[in-house]
Hints:
endopeptidase fold (from Nostoc punctiforme), 8 strands
Amino acid sequence: MPTFHQIPVKENVRATRNALLLVLAVVLTGCASSPDVADRRQSPIPVYGTPVAGDNERVSRLQDVFDRYEGTPYRYGGTTARGFDCSGFIGQAYQEAFGMELPRTTSAMLSHGTPVSSRELQPGDVVFFRIRGKEQHAGIFMGGDDFIHASTSVGVTRSSLNGYYWRDRFTQARRFD
């Protein structure tokens, strides 16, 4: 078997490129998501929290942000209109809608805020999802069972917590006041 130095340069470059592509693929699964598919026959997540004063104002502010960025592409580590990852979009939305600065990453968000049960969700609560064995995706609850987020497949979008992909992956929610 030839040693590394005996392999032609073209093959070394190809092997290096393939290794980099594999690393990139692993990194990009950080805020993994998939578009909703038809509902399965399963109990829905109870997400209809009791409306509270100010819900309409919160939804209106978040909707304005969503309207501005809907369709913005997903970009790992992105925090601008050129591209967002899930936590980057949440941070931008909170900054624009409420003048609040949230922790930058999903894992940092998980250690802040007040835990909220799915039955107590209010618009603006941050919802978290387990993808590939760990909590690595998040979005902003909008009411009903809708949430807005930056999806790897379609960018900034609106999805249903009871959608085929998301229902079994919802793990918790946090409120940032």
